[in-house]
Amino acid sequence: MDTVTYESIVKYMNSMEFSGMKLGIERIREALKLHGSPESRLKVINVVGTNGKGSVTAMLASILGKAGYRVGMFTSPHLVDVRERIQVNGDMISKDEFREMFLEAKSKMPELTFFELVTLMAVLYFVKQKVDYAIFEAGLGGTYDATNFQTGMMTLVTRVALDHTHILGDTVEKITLDKMGVVKEGQPVVVTHANNSVLPIIEDVVVEKKAKLVLAEDSEFDVSLEGEFQKENAGVAVKAAREIGVGEDVIKDGLASVKWPGRLEFVEKNVLLDCAHNPSGMKALSEYVSGLDYEKLYLVFGVSKNKDYQDMIKLLPPHAGLIFTQSTVSRRLPVEEVPEGLECEKVRDPVEALERAKSLAGPDDLIVVCGSIFLIGDVKAALMPEPVQDQVA
Q: pLDDT tens, 4-59?
């Protein structure tokens, strides 16, 4: 197996059916069992929700790191490098360790989906690294997500909204119930106030599981991430940190230094990237942009074809120009399938689309790239001094 290189592993993972999903937790739980149930040796904190999961995960990881803990952080999807998904105290897993975890994960149960495989690799790595806490952001839903282990010390529930309705359900109530499937008996369940409309559903699950409901309000502390809505996300991270016993000064310090790329991130003076990829996220982006000072707005927009892009388009902020593009992943909506009647330019290559926007925008204008996490990843990779060639798409 010495001939198996990191590069060949990434090539193999690129060939996996990443766009396909196999719902169910039987495979990952069987794989974990074959590896001796390593997840039982971790203090697992699950993060579920529709919007804000990644931000809350990053915030809590930053806070716990400032408190002196060794913290594992598992997030998805990545922007540029697949190793972004597995981090300890802000450092990505190295290429050598990624290779090692891949081989170990595949040695017991080779037939896993892409997401199950990376989740298993994260568990094995966090155990090896002897982390004090392991924070796992759910990939999809909760009940049937690979991060829904048999054990866990806490669950955080961010804002729930309509997304993946073809899988999770066509109402916020159904989606909430699915996400609450990750809750374990007796654990604290921290819930944002944005979920007050579905609170009865959450309370029923909490009572059934003999869990502890912890309601979170907007944080009073400053957050290094842009956007008023981040106060809502920070409120969840703050409550979770307090449940663990972290002091207020440390919480404040952690929130002031958190980093989460691709979320309302200015990569140039007048170029803003945001991973808004559903109607709820697009609404939040539009509200943020409305508070900025600029002359004209130019949008570079691309979506995944399984998203509610018709509603997303309706929620786009008022703009002087819209350039419709597509990401490099297979689940993208091709520019040829742009809704009829939409006034826009079509530029297939996302980097060329950004360059077109720059050619239109003046020095006092704003360019926003949004609509897909994968689109943001493509743009960030191109803007890097040495673009990463080994990203999984």
A: 999 999 988 877 755 456 778 999 999 999 999 999 999 999 999 998 999 999 99
The dihedral built from the CA positions of residue 354, 335, 52 and 92, taken in this order, carries a sign that is: negative
| Burial (CB count <10 Å: 0-12, 13-18, 19+), residue 304 | buried
Which residues sit opposite 321 in a β-bridge? Answer: 298
Q: Which CATH number fits domain 6-256: 1.20.920.10, 3.30.70.3270, 3.40.1190.10, 1.10.275.10?
A: 3.40.1190.10
Residue with structure tokens 């990463």? 388
What six digits make up the tokens of 170?
């066509």
Quote the tokens at residue 350.
């996302």
Say yes or no to pLDDT of 122 above 50.
Answer: yes
Whether the Cβ atoms of residue 291 and residue 388 lie closer than 8 Å to each other: no
Give the separation between CA 14 and CA 8, rounded to whole angstroms.
10
pLDDT digits (tens, 9 = 90+) for 172-228: 899 999 999 999 999 999 999 999 999 999 999 999 999 999 999 999 999 999 999
| pTM, to two decimals | 0.91
Burial class (CB in 10 A: 0-12, 13-18, 19+), 279: buried
Boundaries of every domain in the chain? 6-256, 265-383
Q: What is the CATH number of domain 265-383?
A: 3.90.190.20
From 309, 308, 331, select the one nearest 322 (Cα to Cα): 309
| Contact predicate 198/213, CB 8 Å | no
